[in-house]
């Protein structure tokens, strides 16, 4: 979020100093190297680096001549479900000590629970004006989303500061929602909570379609054509993941508990998502002693992010049941290995191989499990898959393949909601 925001603001004509505390990451950025995978960000970084974009670890240098400070620090989920705001409060504490000579508008773009901007204003005190400006960037399409947002949300107590922040996006054709702090914070939380509910709903309908022998894609197409519902995020799969939906849903539920407000729908959506991982796993049948190929480790295509990825739940479950797993992802192999290493000191668990290409993973496997909708996987021909596999089972958790074409190639295709493996 921080790098995309900085680079895109430069593209709009602003001068930006990007403050980052990780010295190694700063060194890479100063060489024009993006430390993560996001389509298009490398070109944007190199276009503006050392021109309108400076990257530094020095807060005083970053604040020099600054009129606006945009805060993009992480707010990860803690064990209680509450967002961990320590990085935010540390930044604001450091900022208060420096007391810039002129007035400074502090824009909280990080996702925070309602009430946080009000607390931030109280902590910073005079000379600072806090504005909530939540982000709605999707990994894999972050640059497009910055320049083509559905809305720009600005929450502030000061009309002048609200106008100042809205003017940062001048040239972007999108409605500006100007509101208070808590309303802006809740817009972000409620938006992601609704998407989580919608995805869980699609998976629930898919489970029923499997029981009826119906094709859920036809069902959800008919449902999504209703303009009151819409077809976006009505895609059944292995369950939602990523850095936003699980964390923001947990944060909203934590906020409700603190306010002693009972919510029923949102906890059910979270339980449905956890159940979906088990449903996908069950489609493989007994796996003890079998070699399972897995295509896809990122939580979705277009990113190397594996946070809350279905693969992080499903692959360890396969290993625990005695399977050997050969997995591939075009971008997320290293981040997946790092995530597993963070969970334990022994690196990759026994029985897991991370392959350099999808066909190495599939070669000689008893079954193929598709977890991420990368275009390269969708382009694989059923005949090639049949030749690579030793077995004939393909569990297509993203519904990438045509069941009839797979059957014609001699494969048993089991999708999500495609009707009992037809």
Shape designation: globular
Biggest pleated sheet: 6 strands, parallel
For the record, the count of structural domains works out to 2
Q: What's the end-to-end separation, in Å?
A: 42 Å
Shape-level CATH architecture of the largest domain: 3-Layer(aba) Sandwich
What would your notes on this structure say?
The chain has 422 residues and is α/β, with parallel strands linked by helices. The protein has 2 domains: 2-179, NAD(P)-binding Rossmann-like Domain (Rossmann fold), CATH 3.40.50.720; 204-415, 3-Layer(aba) Sandwich (Rossmann fold), CATH 3.40.50.720. The chain contains 18 helices and 13 strands. It has helices spanning 2-11, 23-30, 41-48, 59-63, 86-98, 116-124, 142-147, 159-167, 181-212, 216-224, 245-258, 265-282, 310-320, 333-343, 358-362, 375-378, 382-388, 403-408; strands at residues 16-19, 53-56, 68-71, 104-108, 128-132, 152-156, 176-179, 291-295, 324-328, 352-354, 367-370, 393-396, 412-415. It has a 6-stranded parallel β-sheet. The two termini are 42 Å apart.
Describe the SSE topology:
Layout: H1 2-11, E1 16-19, H2 23-30, H3 41-48, E2 53-56, H4 59-63, E3 68-71, H5 86-98, E4 104-108, H6 116-124, E5 128-132, H7 142-147, E6 152-156, H8 159-167, E7 176-179, H9 181-212, H10 216-224, H11 245-258, H12 265-282, E8 291-295, H13 310-320, E9 324-328, H14 333-343, E10 352-354, H15 358-362, E11 367-370, H16 375-378, H17 382-388, E12 393-396, H18 403-408, E13 412-415
Parallel strand pairs: 1-2, 3-4, 4-5, 6-7, 8-9, 8-11, 9-10, 11-12, 12-13
Antiparallel strand pairs: 5-6
Helix pairs in contact: 1-3, 9-10, 9-11, 9-12, 12-13
